Amino acid sequence: MKVMKNIEPLVAISIGEMVENSAHTIASKAICATETTDVRFFSYAKGESISKEYQEEDSLIYVYEGKLKIRFHQSDEQVVSKGEMMVLPSNVPYGIEVLEDSKSLNILVK
Predict the structure, then answer these.
(1) Is it the case that residue 87 has pLDDT exceeding 90?
(2) CATH of 18-102, one of 2.60.40.10, 3.50.50.60, 2.60.120.10, 2.20.25.10
(3) Which of 20, 89, 95, 98 lies 20 to 30 A from 47 at CA?
(4) Which residues make beta-bridge pairs with 97?
(5) Predicted TM-score (pTM) of this structure
């Protein structure tokens, strides 16, 4: 495969099996990383967080298990639950607070 990695080609896999939950940590698995696109699966343990940071790419976060609080700009926040997604434009600082064990698919595009 030219661009995809960490996933077996031509085999169906459950999205829930892409990355495993681990206690007290955040884990990720990249399946595509190019100059213009980054596709990653994340697993978040309840109570963990990611500090606000800027991304040069537009970001789509699709939560397929659990519940995350996305904090953006100075004091805005939005809860994104299982089956929901949120788009964050490039150069908007955002962070994540994990409200319950969660998994997401994050797609970043320049």
Answers:
(1) yes
(2) 2.60.120.10
(3) 89
(4) 49, 69
(5) 0.93
